[in-house]
UniProtKB/TrEMBL annotation:
Keywords: Transferase. It holds the Pfam family Glyco_trans_1_4. It comes from Pseudomonas jinjuensis. This is Glycosyltransferase involved in cell wall bisynthesis. GO terms for molecular function: transferase activity.
Length: 417
């Protein structure tokens, strides 16, 4: 007799197909890993430009049984949310009573065993799921946003778009303008409220997931209870047809990411303004979603090319190229760095980029925290083939040791115990 599959509902703040960002990639990876063991349903806020009917085959291919779109709250609902309780700002942007009823109906009608929630912005839904159902809860915090916002406040970046890639989530331009104008004041409030919600998440959940081992340790110190916490590392696969290392590629600098997200935009600005001018012999290719404002500011600079969204990642991430990621703020694992490592691209980054990536055994591939150190490393990688090979070998060792095993069965077991 075939054993009954665990029924899992994932409540997501975003669509995950197409996976054009690190967070989408991580969630989709988790879905694919649990799909052999579970019957999967998802409810999500659709923030993609592609109509749902066009991507449905991809969702089915990932092992998803049903999809339920959630509705964006109206401006009136957002305003009422802000006045009625003291939530995080992002909760107010995502919560509606109508959506909560839909989620509870799915849990009841489909006899859901486990509900997975995506980030602290969906806390109100998790709270009501705990109150009105018997389903077990996996809460994936991703990063500790209380820390991210603290780093954000300390940065000197002028790209203080608090909404980031969710700017198009709010149709009302006045609300967007108010949020961004208040800037650091809102960040300070949001950091404090996020800390409170992160602690409260441990009280309504059965399992907590975080991407970074460092943040897992910080979180366990903060909550001081015995809830199961896991680092939900993505499983990063090396390309099937590995191309040979070409040392001439080391004259090619690359950048890959969603450049409308504040931490990516701040890093890209630093790369273009402070690092690339001192690497005159190198060409810089920039891939990923980029705003018109950024394109206007930086297009036309000699040696720099914006190529937009890349469909064929294998042809972009060629062995021996160099990816420099001078992050100013941000937390958690940067999926694009792991993907580059899998393709034998030399990755140069700092402590922020290394969050979630172990490196103690390394002599070459380690955090570099100044622009000058990153520039010196790029120059040596381009001129010393032996150094480049050793750097890439250390990256491969980390990938094989830490990112080739998955823990989805332990996560599910802990949720159900």
């Amino acid at each position: 007799m075939t054993p009954k599959k665990t029924k899992v509902l994932l409540v997501l703040s975003r669509a995950v197909i197409p996976a054009d960002g690190g967070r989408e990639t991580l969630i989709l990876d988790f879905i694919r890993r649990i799909s052999p063991h579970c019957e999967i349903h998802i409810a999500f806020f659709d923030n993609k430009r592609k109509p749902l009917n066009e991507v449905m085959p991809e969702y089915e291919k990932a092992g998803i049984s049903s999809i339920i779109p959630l509705k964006r709250p109206s401006a009136f609902n957002i305003f009422r949310n802000l006045l009625s309780v003291k939530p995080t700002l992002q909760e107010a942007l995502f919560y509606s009573h109508e959506n909560s009823k839909s989620i509870l109906h799915i849990i009841s009608s489909k006899k859901i065993d486990v509900v997975y929630f995506d980030m602290i912005r969906l806390f109100r839904y998790a709270l009501e799921t705990r109150k009105y159902s018997t389903a077990r809860i996996i809460y994936d915090l991703d990063d500790l946003l209380s820390l991210r916002y603290s780093y954000f406040m300390e940065s000197d970046s002028k790209s203080l778009n608090l909404l980031g890639s969710y700017s198009n989530f709010i149709g009302n331009e006045k609300i967007k303008s108010i949020i961004n104008t208040l800037g650091r004041l809102l960040l300070s409030i949001e950091s404090r409220r996020s800390l409170k919600r992160e602690i409260e998440a441990s009280r309504v959940s059965n399992v907590i997931l975080l991407t970074s081992p460092a943040e897992q340790h910080i979180y366990q110190e903060r909550i001081k209870n015995s809830i199961a916490t896991f680092t939900n590392f993505p499983v990063i696969e090396k390309p099937r047809n590995t191309r040979p290392l070409d040392h001439s590629n080391s004259k090619e600098l690359i950048w890959l990411g969603n450049n409308e997200v504040p931490h990516n935009l701040a890093a890209l600005e630093n790369l273009i303004k402070s690092i690339k001018p001192k690497l005159k012999q190198h060409r810089l290719q920039i891939a990923g979603k980029t705003s018109g404002k950024t394109l206007t500011e930086f297009s036309g600079i000699a040696g720099i090319e914006f190529i937009g969204y890349v469909d064929d990642i294998d042809s972009f991430l060629l062995p021996g190229k160099i990816l420099i990621a001078p992050f100013k703020f941000g937390t958690g694992i940067k999926i694009k760095l792991l993907e580059a490592i899998a393709h034998r691209v030399a990755v140069i980054t700092n402590d922020i980029g290394f969050q979630g990536i172990p490196f103690k055994e390394n002599t070459c591939f380690r955090p570099l925290n100044s622009d000058d150190d990153m520039i010196a490393a790029a120059q040596r990688l381009s001129s010393d083939e032996g150094f480049l090979t050793k750097w890439l070998d250390e990256q491969s060792f980390i990938l094989d040791r830490y990112f080739s095993n998955s823990y989805e069965l332990e996560i599910l077991k802990s949720a159900l115990d």
